[in-house]
Amino acid sequence: MMKDTEIIMKYLKSTISACLLVLLLGMSVEAQITQKAEIGKFAITNATIYTVTNGVIENGTVLIENEQIVEVGNDVDIPSEYEQIDASGKQVYPGFFDAGTQLGLQEIGAVAVTNDQAELGDFNPHVRAFTAINPSSASIPVTRVNGVTHVISMPVSGRLAGKATLIDLYGYSPDSMAVTPNAGVHLNWPTSKKGGWWDDRTDEEVDKEYKEDLKKLNDFISRAQFYNKMMTDFENNPSNKEQPDMNKKMQAMREVVKGEIPVIISVDAKSDILNVIDWTKDYPDMQFVLAGVRDGWRVADEIAEAGLPCLVSTLYTPERDYDNYQRPYQNPAKLHAAGVKVAIATGGVENVRNAPYHAGFAASYGLGKQEALNAITINAAEIFGVDDKLGSIEEGKQANLFIADGDPFEPMNHITDVFIRGHKIPMVSRHIQLYQQYLDRGAKTN
């Protein structure tokens, strides 16, 4: 009886805590966004426009009508109904694209009820990040006012964690935010290395476990390939056969094994990267993208030869004690120099706002500004097959862009205006509110 009472009290406490948390989050969001985004017809004039794909336009104009860019260039006729935004002395860039986050899936790491980026089990291709996105996440306005207008958000647990989604950082529901609901499936590669000094397994035990994990992965994909063939045969000749039983995990794998969406493989160590390269050769019909790739600079030529694009960050410590401190910053440049298509992916939640500075470090350590700009715009769009919509400032593309008073890779410069899907976004976030609140606290001076 006593044990039952304790269980009930524990449940009540957790429920009350969850309710209070939801209430506080709701109050925070309501206080955070006091303005509505505007949509209509806008003309950004007198700007230096970094189109990414068509060079830099000095003293140029961008016309935005509803969700699209309708004209870009010099000598643009501006109809009277367009609201003009004078960007003299300022720069216009395509909205930045963080190609690997958990944004919208996690709010407070220590509070379980606010986290939806992990699932039980090792193989969950049917789990979709799209269905779990929280449009009211406090981290979203913090991110978008820093120029990041769209991201890949992905589940992270287990071996095959689930399907990532590509979302705009504006909207009132996952449907209104989604660019590509299913953008790829996330695979955590089984490592063939020890976890660290604390790992007391023998080399034989490590190798055995790796081979067992790899066999499970291969078996799962083999079943998915068989299931896809079986279902395809039935769909092509339904009258001649009995309909096979539906399996939601195998059904979710069909677009993966057919190569319609990529497998995003998180892998870091040199030996593991080489293992991944060999493994992908067994599945020529599937698409693959590497993520993390911290040792990528060590095997850049091999990655390039395999034709595998990489999603990388720069703000982490070197993999080995004897590595030069510059290696994380140099990794994107060395991969690019070998011929690898590189895109920026922070892997974060609240610090996705720092994506421009990941690109800035890469630019300063060998990648150069233009290639760093490509890495956080058009390259990511090409990798995920949305370069017809995003990644550059071109007529007919979705109006995801921002205006800055200087180089957005430098933290001292400011972003003054952000457009997402043609909506002029309020430049308000929790961080800005706190900054304004504590900037002048009325402190007495002697």
From TrEMBL:
<keyword id="KW-0378">Hydrolase</keyword>
<dbReference type="InterPro" id="IPR051781">
    <property type="entry name" value="Metallo-dep_Hydrolase"/>
</dbReference>
<protein>
    <submittedName>
        <fullName>Amidohydrolase</fullName>
    </submittedName>
</protein>
<dbReference type="InterPro" id="IPR011059">
    <property type="entry name" value="Metal-dep_hydrolase_composite"/>
</dbReference>
<dbReference type="InterPro" id="IPR032466">
    <property type="entry name" value="Metal_Hydrolase"/>
</dbReference>
<feature type="domain" description="Amidohydrolase-related">
    <location>
        <begin position="330"/>
        <end position="416"/>
    </location>
</feature>
<dbReference type="Pfam" id="PF01979">
    <property type="entry name" value="Amidohydro_1"/>
</dbReference>
<dbReference type="GO" id="GO:0016810">
    <property type="term" value="F:hydrolase activity, acting on carbon-nitrogen (but not peptide) bonds"/>
</dbReference>
<dbReference type="InterPro" id="IPR006680">
    <property type="entry name" value="Amidohydro-rel"/>
</dbReference>
